[in-house]
Amino acid sequence: MTRSDARALDQLRPVSFLPAIAPHAAGSVLVSFGNTRVIVAATLEESVPPWMKYQNVPGGWLSAEYSMLPYSTLDRKRRDISSGKLDGRSSEIQRLIGRSLRAVVDLEALGPRTLWVDCDVLQADGGTRTAAITGASVAVALALRKLVAEGKVKKNPLRQLVAAVSAGVFEGTPMLDLCYVEDRDAEADFNVVMTEKGEFVEMQGSGEEATFTSEQMTAMLDLARGGIARLIEQQRAALAAADAPAGPEALAGLAGLFGGR
Questions:
Q1: What is the mean pLDDT of residues 181-205?
Q2: Of 228, 93, 90, which Cα lies nearest the Cα of 164?
Q3: Scanning 43, 166, 229, 253, which has the fewest C-beta atoms within 10 Å of its C-beta?
Q4: CB–CB of 4/13 below 8 Å?
């Protein structure tokens, strides 16, 4: 079958990482999965949540927040503050992001501090949670690299990189990295999170008013595994490139954010 953007069934959308997009954060990146674009910023706070103090839990904590900006979709999305509470979808996604990053960060080595990971969706075209997790891994790596450089920790708390991608069954065919049109009409949809060692962190999958076979599930997981391996390679390249000075060039990248859908 021919996909809406003419990609092969096992092909990722064009992926890019633009580091240092938020100058005041310890680590930040603008991650793009095709027309899905998310700014992720990692900020360090020299304290831990009260529950850790009360329970005498050693080490630090990592917490994530996720939001879709009002103009990220075709129809304006109301800010959560307008309704006075976080909507269920955003709450579920930010918990997923937090779990995914905590799986690869040594919280005891982090020391008595909190690493905040803020994910703000600038443009949504499917896969915002997977793009956020993949970008968050880069932002956290940059933040923890800075923590080591400043001599605040003895060893880098990041054990390994983590990335995520979607796979689904659309018109009876398993395919990788669904854009919005495919995600909207998919018969089955999986979001898969894996580490650079090929270990699973989390799998979220369901039929969308339909069922799927064990063969289709295996095909989706195989597609996701291959896609995540390629994402990890691109994360490594982005981190290597971030060693070079990044100043006004990073902010200049904002000019091209909102290309045609």
A1: 95
A2: 228
A3: 229
A4: no
Domain ranges of the chain: 15-78+88-243
At 145, give phi and psi (nearest 5°).
Answer: -60, -40
For residue 47, CA distances in Å to 100, 117, 192, 229 come to 21, 15, 32, 35
Instruction: Give the CA distances from residue 21 to residues 74, 114, 162, 165, in Å, rounded to whole numbers and listed in that order.
Output: 24, 21, 20, 23
For the full predicted model, state whether its pTM sits above 0.85: yes
Q: How many CA atoms lie within 13 A of 110 on its CB side?
A: 30
Sheet containing strand 200-207, edge to edge, reads 173-176, 162-170, 188-195, 200-207
Sign of CA dihedral 234, 64, 71, 250: negative
User: Degrees (nearest 5) of the Cα angle 111, 133, 158?
Assistant: 30
Between CA 236 and CA 56 the distance in angstroms is: 36
pLDDT, tens digit, 9 for 90 and up, residues 117-136: 999 999 999 999 999 999 99
Residue 17 dihedral angles phi and psi, to the nearest 5°: -130, 120
Residue 64: both structure tokens together: 């994530």
43-66 pLDDT, tens digit each = 999 999 999 999 999 999 999 999
Task: State the first-to-last Cα distance of the chain, in angstroms, to the nearest integer.
Answer: 21
CATH number given to 15-78+88-243 = 3.30.230.70
Asked if residue 255 has pLDDT above 60, the reply is: no
- 250 Cα distance to chain centroid: 19
pLDDT of residue 247: 47
Q: Are 26 and 146 contacting, i.e. CB atoms less than 8 angstroms apart?
A: yes
- Which amino acid is residue 199, in one-letter code? E
The residues facing 44 across adjacent strands are 115
Q: Give the pairing of strands 114-123 and 61-68.
A: parallel
